[in-house]
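Running this now, will post back.
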Amino acid sequence: MTVKPTGEVHAVANLFPMLADDELQEMADDIRANGLREPIVLTQSGVLVDGRNRIAACKLASVEPRYVVLNGQDPAAYILSLNVWRRHLTKGQRAMAVVLAAEHSQSKRTDVLLSQDADVSVSLLQRAVSVRRYTPALAEQVMAGTLPMAEAQEEARKVKAIQQGEDARLGRLRTTAPDLAERVDAGMALAEAEAALVARQKAIQERQQHVTRAVVTAVEASEGVCGSQAVREGTIAEFVPALAKGSPMTRARLEALAGAYAALAEGWDHDGGELASGDGADSDGGVCPDDEYANADRG
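Update: finished.
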């Protein structure tokens, strides 16, 4: 089966750096003198799997390269097995090569299985996975040999702590304000959503304070004209609806107000408040009952 190279290089092969210029020239001199001993390996679709340096050296030596097709093997595993031992890689580089190769494995071989081929410990593999996940740019530096694994891992640990903190904050936001959490999922900054929640809670608190002050003021005023049986009787006798300014004072309005007070008292009782226990209310009725006003309706 004859396959022509497409010029494309397999992603895992690209993980490994090319030889230095002087080393590449030495290879070219050897190929010119002795021929190409190892052919270039391609996939059945013509993607280069192994031999980037040999192709470059053939060009320098003006030698036509030979090609073979990789049959039945996972290209990622094949490339990894060749390069981790062919090159002088640190343990950190080998571990990172395993993690990156696993991302391109056609046979779905896990990074743990690939690590066995590269003689990488599980603990070192886990560190490489963490660096790749939390600091992908540093993973490339580790692979290139420009950054030690230990330094990359420390940076990954810091990023992980920040992300986990953000995950916890987002979790709290999902509980207290699901709509804002959805906006974060859609691209809104988490800090912006948290600021919106604080503003929302402040507005709610201000409304609660306003309503509470209004109710307290109304209750205190009502107690002055209907706090006891005698006072209520005097109020009924002296209240003249025709003298009310503004909107007309009607029985319906008084009944609605009495109903609102009753609902407030009931809700307070359910929440464990003090209104139902008689605190601040007269023992024979508290706020004005609507039956008293029913007797006082004079038109």
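The two ends are 108 Å apart (CA to CA). More later if anyone needs it.
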